[in-house]
Amino acid sequence: MKRFPHHTLLASAATLAVLAPGPRVSAADDPVALRALAVSHCSQCHTFEKGEPHGQGPNLWGLVGRAAGSAPGYPYSEGFMTALKGKLWDTALLDRWLADTLSVAPGNQMIYFQDDPAKRAALIKFFESQR
Amino acid sequence: MTARKSPGESQRTRREFLKAAGAGTAAAAFGTVTLSAKEVQAATFDAEYDIVVCGGGGGGLPSALFSRWLGNKVLVLEKAGTLGGTSFKAAYWYWVPNNAAMRKAGMEDSKSDFLRYVARLSAPQTFDPSAPRYGLNEWEYSMCEAIWESASDGAELLASKDALPYRHVAPVPDYFAEMGYKGNTGRVLFPKDGAPTMSDGGRVATRTLSLACRRDGVDIKTGHRVQKVILNDKGEVIGVEAKVEGGGVYRARARKAVVFATGGFTHDPELRKNFLNIPVYGGCAAMTNEGDFVRIASTLGVQLRNMNYAWTCPVSLEKAIARDPSISGMFSVAGDSMIFVDKRGKRVINEKLQYNELAQKFFEWDGAKAEYPYLVLISIWDQRAQDNSAGHEYGRLIVPPGTDDRHVIKGNTLEELAANIDARLQKYAGYIGGMRITSDFTNNLKASIARFNELAATGKDLDFGRGDRPVEQLFNGNVKEEPGRTNPTMWPISGQGPYYAALVTGGTLDTKGGPKTNNNGQVLDGNNKPIPGLYGVGNCVASASGRAYWAGGATLGPIIAFAYRAANTANREPVKS
Q1: Fewer CB atoms near the end CB (10 Å): N or C, chain A?
Q2: Can you tell me the ipTM of this complex?
Q3: Prediction pTM value
Q4: How many CB pairs under 8 A join A and B?
């Protein structure tokens, strides 16, 4: 089970991973690299482990396969709910979302656009493991 | 909530990681590459632009837009996976002296009063209201004058292009408005669609600025960490080299100029320890702010300035030590039936002091005991404050039920609270010099509460002046309606539990020192000559503010002014071969 200090240990590892040249991240990559990418891109706003608190964005444990806008206690924006309420977070929707969140749900709070499909796939793969 | 693991184990391995990371970054990775004419011809750049902006946050996005709107081909290279940098989590008030809205509203501003105000705060030892530069040196004066000249031009252009529409928050006073200079109210602008509480401007601004960038054809690459500046054999900047996330190197040619807006060094422990005048614990700057430009520019013979000061704020000790990426600075100290006490259980400061000033207290040195006696202060509040002053904004310690309250310590009685505080302190022994509460803590705490309650009943804090000044009222936060009270920042603490506490220390929004630039953002060499093609905007270069935090938004307002001037000056640069 991963707990709070362990998460921040890997935040330092993520920095190290970004500095050291290495193989390009692909969907087949090992869990450590996938986690490092997620920490680097997502941890400013999101936590990933079961029971961790919401931050600027909702906790993402169990994201894949749950309904959008369903994390208990998180104040989703109107822009988010208008576009996405009740839709299922499957890999296809996640891929569209991560490509450009503001075009999927205009006016929502998350600002992220990733035009590298391999990176999107890697992030999705990480979140699939978080349930 | 997950149970907290003892940080002892993580501490050791984390320190090893950080040491290893530090050694790797400091050595070969950063610096300059000089190419001969032949090498420039043969060099393979991945792409060619007129202007390359390093950093996609509060300084970078405006710099990129201003450059683009002048007709340049522009690239933004962002180290993190997302845009916004430190400004994304910020409230994003921006301080614009003599702004269009205040002029329209008939609110007077004055260049000489503006300059006197900033001089009084930034150069208090030499301040002279009748001297030609009011006690500022030439460089400081020229930088401050540039803020007066250009902040409004920059803000208006961003608004007119829908990149940063604003609303005027006219009643907001400057932080030392009681000094009575003209223009001390009315200078703050705020992103138009932000919340009424004005806490979420960073998200709004990052959205509007980044949409404008993409609408207007600014190229953006995230996950690209600029590590080297490329020079031709005349010493002119002609491009940058970036390490790409996941592997590889990316080189961008910059025909006219490179603008650095990469933020400060809040998250580099080595730079913090060796440059800052206070040993802060970290802060709410973007996690990627590790002083990259200090390291890169140091190979170019620049003059590092203002490295000793930072935009400071109290922070949760625990969140800072955990390097929690969601950490916010404590811009508002919540609660009226609330006090801060030291390890002895005694009140030592006005808890409602503006955050930059409050943060200094933690690092006062005791020359007899050889310690920082106030390194960790403990916020204490009652159920009444918990019920009425909870909020999730501005880094407040009092949070609503169901939100992240891992930093909160509880006790049904003051004795129980004290025991729990001591247990919490023990977890962080290695970071706080083994600080524990003293044996008379509980007795002193009771006496402190009794004394505070006496003062709160009159509304006059004779010990520390809490609530005397406009800025302290400004950040008071929600408190229970108490008809007839004269000082909303104070109310007696209850004689009955439950009680709550949290550990507080000092941190930085970000540092504000780096290479010296002229007032057009050109980075200067050791002879005060601009390094051709090299610009710096924001916290990666030296601020002329010294230790001072002039007003809410005195970070971002000046950044917009310098982004505007840098873009306009860089636009006129000759193309370098």
Answers
A1: N
A2: 0.82
A3: 0.91
A4: 129
